[in-house]
Amino acid sequence: MKKLCLIVNPIAGMGGRVGLKGTNGADIVAKSLELGAKPVSPVRAVEALRVLKKSGAEFELITYPAEMGELEAAEAGLKARVIGNIASGKTTADDTKRAAKEMLELGVDIILVAGGDGTMSDVIEAIGTRAPILGVPTGVKLHSAAFANTPEVAGQVAARFLSEGLPLQEAEVMDIDEDAYRENRLVAKLRGYAIVPYEPVMMQTTKEGSTGFELADQKAIARWTIELMERGRVYILGPGTTTRAVAEELGIYDSTLLGVDLIYDFKLFARDANERQILEAIDGKPATIIVSPIGRQGFIFGRGNQQLSPAVIRKVGKKNILVLATPHKLSLTQTLKVDTGDPELDDELRGYIPIITSYLQTHMVKII
Amino acid sequence: MTYRQARWTREGCLEPLVFELSRAGRKGTSLPPKVLARIKIPDKLIRRSLELPELSEPEVVRHYTRLSQMNYGVDLVFYPIGSCTMKYNPKICDELANAEEAACIHPYQAEETVQGALELMYRLERYLAEIAGVSRVCLQPSAGAHGELLGMLLVRAYHRSRGETRTQVIVPDSAHGTNFASAAMAGFNVVVIPSNNRGRVDLEALKSAVSEKTAALMLTNPNTLGLFEDEILEIAGMVHEVGGLLYYDGANMNGILGKSRPGDMGFDITHFNLHKTFSTPHGGGGPGAGPVGVVRKLEDFLPVPIIEYDRKRYYLDYDRPNSIGKIRSFYGNFGVLVKAYTYILMMGASGLEEVAETAVVNANYVMRKMADVSGFEVEFDGPCKHEVVFSAEPLKRETGVTARDVAKRLLDYGMHAPTYYFPPIVPEALMVEPTETETKEELDRFIAAMREIAEEARLNPEKLRAAPTATAIGRLDEVKASREPILSWKMYRKLAKE
After folding, report:
1. How far off is chain B from A362, nearest CA to CA, in Å?
2. B459 touches chain A (CB under 8 A)
3. ipTM for the predicted complex
4. Does residue A139 share a domain with residue A61?
5. Domain limits for position A288
6. Nearest-CA neighbor of A42 among A85, A4, A11, A86?
7. Residue B400: pLDDT band with limits 50, 70, 90
8. Which residue ranges form the domains of chain B, and what is each CATH number?
């Protein structure tokens, strides 16, 4: 029988309603409680579990004690094997990390993580991509693509994963610097990637030139992108798996997943470049920015790729921006967003732009 | 009405393949040895081993009858598969196509001996041109997608003749899936534009997509949501203004016969699915026919030969210097052309118009009646044309049961499933095209089945996830089926060895 593990971050989401923009750190938890915040994560975790129970999928449920999963499982009417120890009422990020590690050692098939971006970052810090994860969105910040759209959807996808098996894909895990955010500055960091199941909901997408399989689609996109490349031009490759596929198609296997790489004459020219290095490299040379929407909200600039600053984008020019996205990714976002930090530039970038979605295929998508 | 599909098994397995039934030396024919002895076949043309199954005639008849009993067809059940126009095909069309005069002629026969066949094709071309509002029609393509490819090759030839290189073909996201592939096959890049919140082409997106690179826009009207593109004249204007052409995907012609014509809407190229609209049983790979009609400025590029009449005789005209050449061997799937010709003559102009009217009324009847079936919704307001797309999203939210489960469960009610998960812009899509050949009772039976299925989803969702159970085989692994299909005996044997 398949093993499904559950980690609930009981305090996730508490900071939201009381305007604290997140709940990372013990002092913020205390402050949230002071402001009268009530736990929201357990309730939403139970919603996902109820859907899972109703589906009739067979699995062994393993979870952490008390509010980290045991109570939620009981509430949803599911029997669970409880492992580990916590100080109930005083759980921290360390408990999440320890839970993920212990579950990995048990040979888990999938871990349901109920929390927000912070929780997800903790989990991948502990186990990386060694086990599939599925995020139940219960936190304040939900920029990571590793989350299902709603707790119900998380339950449904988990059910299908357990009963029918689903393909896996990499999904970004993002987190935002909460201290900066509280001062109204938004600094999103790409923490890494999780392996998540994905449901090819629409088999018929095959008709549209999409294979319905993320990796094959990425390869098709990469092929065409390379055909569009020319010598004597600097290609600024933003973070992400879709852009990484372009590097790999060029035979470059040491590109950075989370950073910005520069390619010149089909070779890696600079790795993990910062804003200054990018500006130097494109000085006096034509350049193209190649980016893919990051996270669930479809940001192409300003989330996880701040190296691509307003100065870089202006110098390259709007005409020389290539956006890549698989049909699946596009179906999740619908519209794209920009937040370069320069409102005037954001305005210039808005409107319909072509996105490469497959070999020989572009979609007109609106940047709002 | 209860339904239970036949399930023929032998030693616990489903009906064996015809190759597995083969026994050495069995045969269903006896050729006269004296005649055979007289025929001298050159040695190098004789194949020494021919891997064909060896069976007696009754074995063959029973085998295929049993297979047909484990299948769905429009002669057996309601078949509301949207975008495919699975309507009843009058038997008279088959009868005439199978008549000796039609079935036993050979494409290499001298023109004088096939004047009747040429006349039929010549007249059919005129009828189709009138129906679509175009000037000439090529009857050759063997299928809709083949017609699309021809259309795209004509687009290329047209721009090339003007010394232009145009690389992009614009396709709305509600388009037929084959459009994307056809454009790419003809060497174009595909630019997909989104639909607006009315389920129609988003003019703002179209405006951002058209340019001097635009070779053509491919569109079907009514679109795959069953909605009429009411801004079609603006759309045509925008594309023509930049020098592009308009291509009409004729898959949905059943909804407009005699009511509106692609040529009048501004389309330059139109294809027909004779097997959908003009009465040829289809599905399973043909034979079909996808004739392509063009406006006057594109006539010269049509494939050779075209059929001409000099007031004395009909003949095949190959003397067309600007033609793109051949699109297939010979002149098209003649049997399908005979069926279409028969159908058009039988219906007449007013009959064809009534086809569109009844098809549209039937779809709207289903849409209105389904409004009180909780669990399904229609995303876009207003009347539809010949088909309607329901979303099972509310049912999924409430019960976890998906559009796929509903579609599979319908099979247990003795009805074919609608097209599901298409068009991809509607979540949990169920695309229903009842067609004009269904009675009110049949439509009511479908609606009642949908209502019962929604109830089952609430009371016993497990039953739906297990569906179909009344069919010869249960639910297939669709991913495996589409990614690892075993298409021939050769492939099957090779896999068995491995």
Report:
1. 5
2. no
3. 0.80
4. yes
5. 205-367
6. A11
7. confident
8. 9-78 (no CATH), 95-346 (3.40.640.10), 349-483 (3.90.1150.10)
